[in-house]
Amino acid sequence: MRLYRYRGGWCGTQADARDQAGKQFEQIEVPTDKDGLIHFLNIEHDKVRTLEDRIADLKQPAPLVSIEEAEAGALGVEGFVPADLMRLTDIEEFIQLADHRQLATVIENAVLRLRELQKECDRARCEADRVLA
């Protein structure tokens, strides 16, 4: 049996998948015999469980770390994950599965960070203008 998986769920036809996800879906062959179907469902369940566990880990409040500890690479602090060890796919998965409140928090923090970066850029531009003048 063919099913079509997209980021938000499953469809029974390509037409339905296109309506739901545009071109962002994949065709999956699902076994129809009892043993094969049970095996398939267990694998899919494990994938969902793994994502749920990862999201639960992301929801856990990280311990407070001082700026000095963070800059020094405080790997000994439980729950501290340096940015270079974080995978972009972890963040993308969290965003895709976040509820409204969580997503609003992520967006708010992203906007605040973008404003900080813009201010830094503006300061650097002003400094460069002063040096060139």
UniProtKB/TrEMBL annotation:
Record's keyword annotation contains Coiled coil: yes
Keyword tags: Coiled coil
Claim: Coiled coil is one of the keywords in the record: yes
Chain coiled-coil ranges: 100-127
Protein name: Tail fiber domain-containing protein
